[in-house]
Amino acid sequence: MMDSAPNSPPSKSEEKRFNKDEVTSFIKETVENTLGDAEYSHSKVPALNNTIIETILKKMKDDNKNYKYVVTCVILQRTGAGFYAGSSVIWDKNNDDSAGYRHETKSMYAVVNVFGLSI
To answer: Would you state the pLDDT for residue 7?
Structure first.
C-alpha cells in the first residue's frame, strides 16, 4: 500500500467543516463588541458596518481556508419602519451552510449573515 504524499491536500472528510454554532457565536461576539448599546449615528454606520464585516471575514479565512465566505451586514435605525430581507442559494447541502445573528439596541438593529461555500 502506498502512503499519500505529505503535502497532498486533505480529503473532504479531513477538511474542517463549517460549524454553524461556532460561526453564530463569533458573529454575536463581533457585533456586540462593535456596537454594544451604541446610539444610531448615520455618520458612524459605514465604519461600524465595515468593522463587523472585515472582522468576521478575517476570522473565517484564518480559521478555515476550505471555504469561500460571503458576509452581509445591515444596520438600521430603529424607527418603527418595516424591514424584510430574503435570500436563496443553490449549493452543496452536505458541505455549505450559513449562520446569522440579529442585534438590537434602543436605537438600531443589526442583521449579519455569513455564508460558507466549500471550495
So the answer is: 58
Question: Which position has the grid cell 446610539?
Answer: 39
**CATH code linked to domain 20-81+90-118:** 3.30.1140.40
The 10 Å CB-count burial string (b at 16+, else e) for 14-27 is eeebbeeeebbebb
Q: Measured between alpha carbons, how far is 58 from 114 in angstroms, rounded to an integer?
A: 12
Please state the pTM of the whole predicted model: 0.84
CA distance 19 to 99: 9
User: How many other C-beta atoms can be found within 10 angstroms of the C-beta atom of residue 4?
Assistant: 9
pLDDT in tens, 2-30: 554 555 555 554 568 899 999 999 999 99
CB 30 within 8 A of CB 55: yes
